[in-house]
Amino acid sequence: MAQEANTGKRYTRLAMSLHWLMALMIMVAFAMGVYMVDLPFDDTRAWFFRHHKNIGLTVGLLLLLRVWWRIRHPAPPLPPETPDWERRAAAVSHRVLYIMMAVMPISGFFTTSFTGYPTYFWWIPIDLGKWGGENELANDIFAFIHVGSAYFLAFLVLMHAAAALRHLIIKRDTVFQRMLPGRAEEKKE
Ligand code: HEM
Ligand code: HEM
Q: For residue 138, which of 82, 114, 153, 184 is within the disulfide window of CB 3.0 to 4.6 Å?
């Protein structure tokens, strides 16, 4: 396995693809979540819940691949002039982002499995949520965790995007390009 792949000047293609695909899916899941909870109880609401769950659970599965990949591929080195506090802030915030990407699907799954509503994963005809049974207190606790975590993650993502854009627009260093494909110095995977 290409152990050196992430130690070039940028992330590997797989890491970039997972980063941008999952970022998009998380933002779509977030927007759907906020929208769907106020819908009247009809088919549209059911459609949004079903696809919110599908997208969220897919994020959870992709996260397994991403973490497995990341453990084997260290992040590309930051520019040597990067101050220590920025290195630490990046390491800590990335770790928390990973944790929140796991908390979202897990808390969402438990929220739903205590409602008594079924959870199907895309076209697989197996009800994943059935074993939870109906339990209002457990549902409330997990919904509280799920919703709180969603807004905390949204805050983190805003900070993260602002930090990334600071590199692109203000500092004009190579940090943002590490997550973008197509420049000459990219190493082969
Ligand atoms: C990336 C993953 C996810 C994100 C970002 C996300 C985000 C959200 C948001 C923003 C809300 C609405 C909060 C509100 O304003 O009340 C919500 C609600 C909900 N989500 Fe998720 N979610 C994710 C994954 C999941 C998964 C995997 C499931 C279930 C398998 C799920 C089940 C639910 C349910 C049942 C609600 C309604 C909770 C309630 O009744 O208050 N979510 N989600
Ligand atoms: C839901 C949205 C997002 C999540 C969960 C997320 C998560 C992450 C994580 C965990 C890393 C660290 C990768 C690693 O070393 O393993 C990362 C890196 C990066 N992200 Fe995001 N990201 C999101 C959205 C964005 C957005 C909107 C931008 C740009 C505006 C962005 C720009 C970057 C850049 C440039 C890097 C590489 C910089 C570095 O490694 O220090 N991300 N992202």
A: 114
Contact 76, 8 (CB under 8 A): yes
Q: Which ligand is nearest to the CA of 60?
A: 1
**How far is the C-alpha of 153 from the C-alpha of 23, rounded, in Å?**
11
Q: How many domains does the chain divide into? A: 1
Q: Whose CA is nearest to atom 11 of ligand 2?
A: 94
- Tell me if 185 is assigned to some domain: no
By alpha-carbon position, which residue is closest to atom 23 of ligand 2? 23
Question: Is 0.85 topped by the overall pTM?
Answer: yes
Residue 146 domain flag: yes
Residue 27's domain comprises: 5-179
Give distance in angstroms: CA of 33 to centre of ligand 1.
5
